[in-house]
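User: My advisor, Dr. K., asked me to get a structural model of this assembly before our group meeting. I'm new to this, so sorry if the format is off. These are the inputs:
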Amino acid sequence: MCGIVGIVGKREVAPLLVDALKRLEYRGYDSAGVATIHNGKLERRRAEGKLINLDTRLGEHPLAGHIGIGHTRWATHGAPTEANAHPHFSQGVAVVHNGIIENFTPLRAELIANGAVFHSQTDTEVVAQLLTAYRSQGLSPREAMQKTLGRLEGAYALAILFEDQPDMIMGARSGPPLAIGHGDGEMFLGSDAIALAPFTDEITYLDDGDWAVITRDSAEIYDHDGALVERSSQISQGGVYVVDKGNHRHFMEKEIYEQPEVVSHTLSHYIDFAEGRVKLDSSQIDFANLDRLAMSACGTAYYAGLIGKYWFERFARLPVEIDVASEFRYREIPLSGKMAALFISQSGETADTLASLRYCRDNGLTIGAVVNVRESTIARESNAVFPTLAGPEIGVASTKAFTCQLSVLAALAMIAGRARGTLSSEDEAAMVQALVELPRLSNEVFHAVQPQIEMLSRELSRFKDVLYLGRGTSFPLALEGALKLKEISYIHAEGYAAGELKHGPIALIDENMPVIVIAPHDRHFEKTVSNMQEVAARGGQIILITDEKGAAATTLETMATIVLPVVDEIVAPILYALPVQLIAYHTAVFMGTDVDQPRNLAKSVTVE
Ligand code: F6R
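Assistant: The format is fine. Below is the predicted structure of the whole assembly, which you can bring to the meeting.
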């Protein structure tokens, strides 16, 4: 999603703005722009496509000034052209925006009727035009800002420059996050702490409905009603992480290979390995007295939640109600006092997940959140935060956040099982023992399967469609595998519960449809083998991901059999995620796609 940055400082800001935008690239974007005020005049440079294009433009036509705003745009209203790129100008006002102004059509019509001339197809331009309209009625920038915000419906993070105020940037937040960075004689605005990390680690997050006026040495924050409010600053973790690719070709590759380390880090946060038990404080969610758990998330985080459902139901006998957040929020699910809700999000900012959280909170449920960004809105609005310690995930396709989410959900399911008396301490100790082995086994898997998967991916890159099958927790992993492949290689892929095959998708099977079967030798294995027989009988090409026992137990001819170590069922989805991610990654590399920023996708989805 769009990224925002603003600097009011004591040095040339254009290169700093571009540098900050580079740190926001991971969010996904299709055009970019910056504006500064220099000698009392607003000027901007914008470019379609990647930041390199903006950099080139700035090289040809430099932009001077010690105050400025910048933006990476992920198109919602209007094509990703230069004319639609931000900042948008309207007579001495410049605006950058993340979100969607839902009532932009009537606002635009009203402004046009009053003589405004629009230069883009964006919803954002109405904000600039409204500010201009109010300023031309004689209102001060603060008054115009408050009036304008009162007219906007929808979601926004905004940064605004006024040509006649060369020492001041205004920001506003309703939905998508916006942070103020405190420097020494310089102040900053940014979509997140990572963008501001090279400048400062002292960050104040605006609350929903807040707007702010920042100058070189001050930040005033007003709430929705225009009352001056105090919001405390905090020292952010954003700067401690090195956001570079190291020796890897892509962030995604780096993040895949980081998993043994970050999963181990995450598990150590929740598990006392010496004692053989989960050390989480069970009082945060009263699992013992729940009769249902509601869960919701989007995309990959949702698939992590689906796997979590299997664990909560099996190990804690706790029924789980789970849905993608874009449905959950509107489903009007009846909620009772004996329920709690758990939301899963890497960014902690996903609009649909946040709306689902608020629905549950408004219905009086205790809210738990599994999040990777601890300062995020979802974390701040939850009663209990269960962090994933994955570090910043830059590749748009989620990898290490997924396995860290699974690690946290495994620990939560175990604590719930203990609290509800359904998991014996012996079983808990056995599961902990299995999890201890996970980082080492993950490294072994990388070494063992990497060359084979590279070769296989070259083959796969020739196909147009791929089917993924699995049973039990391997079913959500099949869905995740299909999502990963389609989002970065653009090959059409579907995930199915293996048992569903004969209810429809079997019609697709022929020699042009490789079928990736995820099947550890668990209690579902024999049934999955029967489904593989059905595929083989119809000329389908099978890629089997199994363990040593599974490989020994089947004589079926496969296009490839990827063999992993035999592991406990709580560990299997985490370990099996690795070859699934590598298949998508290498296939995309062979296809030559933009692996880290696949087309049309955004990292932090702050609009519906
Ligand atoms: C897929 C992917 C997305 C996200 C989804 C939720 O690889 O990354 O499907 O999982 O947009 O995002 P978060 O976890 O930030 O709420």
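One thing worth pointing out at the meeting: The pocket of fructose -6-phosphate is lined by residues 298-301, 345-347, 350, 353, 397-398, 483, 487, 604-605 (CB under 6 Å).

User: Perfect, thanks a lot.
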